[in-house]
Amino acid sequence: MNDAIEFSSTVSAMTRGGILVVTIDNAPVNATSADVRSGLEKALVHAEATADVAGVVITGAGKTFIGGADIREFGKPAIEPTLPAVIEKIEKLSKPVVAALNGAALGGGLEVALACHYRVASSTAQVGLPEVKLGIVPGAGGTQRLPRLIGIPAALDLIISGRSAKTDEALSLGIIDEIAKADLVETAISAAQKLSGKQLRRTGELSIATNEAAEIERAAARILGRARGQKAPAEAVRLITSSNRPLAEGLADERATFLTLRDSREAAALRYVFFAERESSRVEGLEGIEPRPVKTIGICGLGLMGSGIAVAALAAGYTVIGLDQTVEIAEKGRECIVGLLERNLASGRLDQDGFEAQKARLSVTASDADLAPCDLVIEAVFDDLDIKIDLFLRLDKVIRPDAVLATNTSYLNPDEIAAATAYPERVLGMHFFSPAHVMRLLEIVRCARTAPDVLATGLAVAKTFKKLPVVTGVTEGFIGNRIFSAYRREAEFLLEDGALPHEIDAALEDYGFPMGLFAVYDMAGLEIAWARRKRQAAARDPATRYVGIADTLCEMGRFGQKAGRGWYAYPDGKRTIDPDVTAIIETARAQKGITPRAFPKSEIQERMLKAMAAEGEALLAEGIAARPSDIDLVMINGYGFPAHKGGPMFART
Ligand code: 3HC
């Protein structure tokens, strides 16, 4: 051991057993910023030139190996050395370079590791090339070296999904060579010592298997079919499937593609979404506020929503007590929850031990008193104010005064529920999206009297549920459903003005929505919204424009797919334009004296976006949403707005 050498302010090294152990320390995630690249380059030059150094180990400080290129540098003037240049130096070094993956090796981080001659990982490490999620392709050799290491089909899967692989999978795929059983860096040092003086395995020199053409073609077609107009996945497919060519040629193509995509609108949108997700949990007034401790969660109402919430809570490690009206109904709820856990077991998302452990943490009851140990109770009962108030009054009597109460209402006013309780400051809204164990979005509703630590508790619990929490103030429908209403209203105006449902849906699907609005309606069923419209009818201002076409469909029993007809017809289950619906729309137009006109796709898209953005502006002005990016996250994660367009607020810029 000798003194540390500082190669830059973020890269330092010690020589141990003749091996230069280089540590990258660039909090928070050891991104390969300019200072890291220059430090690494200097370390490599030093290793090559120093006779006493027999090899190099590269590792990261903290819990990440390297989180990738520094995304904050994108869009700024390039600073030498570039990452590909540093990576080339690693691969070409005459002495062995071993990557010691102490944590996540993502994007440029994995590309650094791929160029090393051997890769050792700690059991908690993970590897991945998530660039396509940022609207780019790997830009430092990922599309060329990964196929050389693991074959084109496996590389396609990893790069296009952008997912991370844990160490067991990384080892079986051949991305890493060893999982350290003892100290990671010691293991890496001894690997470097063993490789010293031997023929080095350089990933860039490996040849690619060529007998997988049919599999590759199938995988590429599947991927492109799902790309919804995004450029990055298509370019990644092209680069990976053509990687069987001289390395330098492939790398040059990859770099040029990376640079073009990096400056695209799609990449700017996805980068914006990346930072928006991290920004959303920074909430004004919560700085330094500790959440209340939560170990046991009560869930009232074990229907589909309550069951989904229970599954998310069990997966996060909580003890769950489910409450429903009778022992029989509660038992049905338990069966539903266990059924969902069984599905996770069957799909491999849960192993047998995990399944047993989660089941053991679940109990159900029909007695309020059994909720006494709960630190948080989430209600997911029927969306009716009297029912919810009655439940909360009962809960007031049995749970501790410091336990938190959350309502999962989508349209009711949670302030009215809170006001009826003994401790309104402990009440907040947690608006889950269905299915609650799958959908990432969770609107956290800050009521007029919600205490800061109660709000912080909602956010902290949401994070443990692996949800994306977005804080909203109280308004009818909160952020998401309010914008959705504006979106729906505009679509109905368009219907009256001359567009047909399939034209509007085609414009939306072309924009990147997975499904058009009217197709979604048919899938979800039209009757719930109809019932709400009927409830609201008396309060409606007769001077505001109201489109009654949906009501006419409902009056005819056209409730959507389940009924075999709605906005479309479904002969043999296939969505088909229905001339009867066209006639209904034409009659409605005629009754109002509207002369229909044709709408090009672009105009439909523009009007829908404008309507959403205008409602978003109103939410900001009213203080319901804290920032435009929160609105965009809600629309992307709850309503199918394409992430690569950044959300309605980003898209208007
Ligand atoms: N560049 C710049 N900042 C980054 C970053 C990156 N690559 N990755 C994370 N950060 C920042 C986040 O914005 C956040 O900043 P904040 O505290 O100011 O909000 C901070 O690091 C911590 O991030 P997380 O909250 O996400 O921390 P976690 O511990 O939950 O997760 C992680 C760590 C798994 C590394 C996660 O941050 C992540 O997935 N990062 C992005 C990885 C990625 O996409 N890499 C590819 C980059 S593009 C590339 O490498 C191109 C190459 O091919 C040339």
UniProtKB/TrEMBL annotation:
It is found in: Peroxisome. Residues 296-472 form the 3-hydroxyacyl-CoA dehydrogenase NAD binding domain. Coiled coil: none annotated. Pathway: Lipid metabolism; fatty acid beta-oxidation. Residues 477-570 form the 3-hydroxyacyl-CoA dehydrogenase C-terminal domain. InterPro entries: 3-OHacyl-CoA_DH_NAD-bd (IPR006176), 3HC_DH_C (IPR006108), 6-PGluconate_DH-like_C_sf (IPR008927), ClpP/crotonase-like_dom_sf (IPR029045), Enoyl-CoA_hyd/isom_CS (IPR018376), Enoyl-CoA_hydra/iso (IPR001753), NAD(P)-bd_dom_sf (IPR036291). The keyword Oxidoreductase applies. CDD domains: crotonase-like. Gene3D superfamilies: 1.10.1040.50, 2-enoyl-CoA Hydratase, Chain A, domain 1, NAD(P)-binding Rossmann-like Domain. Keywords: Fatty acid metabolism, Isomerase, Lipid degradation, Lipid metabolism, Lyase, Multifunctional enzyme, NAD, Oxidoreductase, Peroxisome. It catalyses: a (3S)-3-hydroxyacyl-CoA + NAD(+) = a 3-oxoacyl-CoA + NADH + H(+). The keyword Isomerase applies. PANTHER family: 3-HYDROXYACYL-COA DEHYROGENASE (PTHR23309). In the N-terminal section; belongs to the enoyl-CoA hydratase/isomerase family. Belongs to the enoyl-CoA hydratase/isomerase family. This is 3-hydroxyacyl-CoA dehydrogenase NAD-binding domain-containing protein. It comes from Neorhizobium phenanthreniclasticum.
